[in-house]
Design a protein that fits this description.
single chain; alpha/beta; Rossmann fold; 10 helices; globular
Length: 247
Amino acid sequence: MTPPPSGLLEALRQDTHKQPYVDWVFSRVAERYDLGNDLMSAGWHSRWKDRLVAFARIQPSHRVLDIAAGTGDVTYRLGALAHHGEVIGSDINPDMLAVAEHKRPGGMSHVRFSIDDAASLPFEDNSFDRVTCVYAGRGFPDFPAVLSEVFRVLKPGGEYWNLDFARPPNRLFDRAYRGYMMASGAALGTLLHGHPKTYMYIPASMAAYPGQRWLDRQMQAVGFETWLVETFGCLMAYNLGVKPRHR
């Protein structure tokens, strides 16, 4: 494993330099990523993901794209419902997708993985019923470009579902929560991966992320009709974008 890049936390606040640092983090944590999520959230991340999949109302014949799919946690949930359709887990990091492939359940031949940049997707216009993105948007160097691509590949009437950490409106609470995440992330990163900066990525990227209401505006700017749910004390947010049937 290569040494951590210098200025990791600072680079996450600069979109033009973000991708190499995101790549370093996720290549390093790939094999224990699921365990780290379980420990960091006390298992709650599974409940939030289940809720997103329930919100998305996946039908058996749907064609679904899960961007920044990571280890396939959500991709396989989607695959269990779209069992007569197709589900694609797309991610820029091959190490994460290797873990996803390794844990493939039986009966999931309709699920496949693809190494892609979410800002330049290799899929046809109007070709997906649903697109999902879970705990990943903060890491995109150009989130508006990703949203434009998502809008392009969705069918008219299709839905984009985004789940991520929220930015609480109370600044003191926001700072206190990120401080807790920084301290616990450093401890967990050292324990699981031998380096504190691996899980400090989460609070650092949270600090750089403008938040769920900013995302709602960005989604509207590319043409989505939007809906926002803030939950768990405004620590989590579900953003929905629907591609209009008629423009």
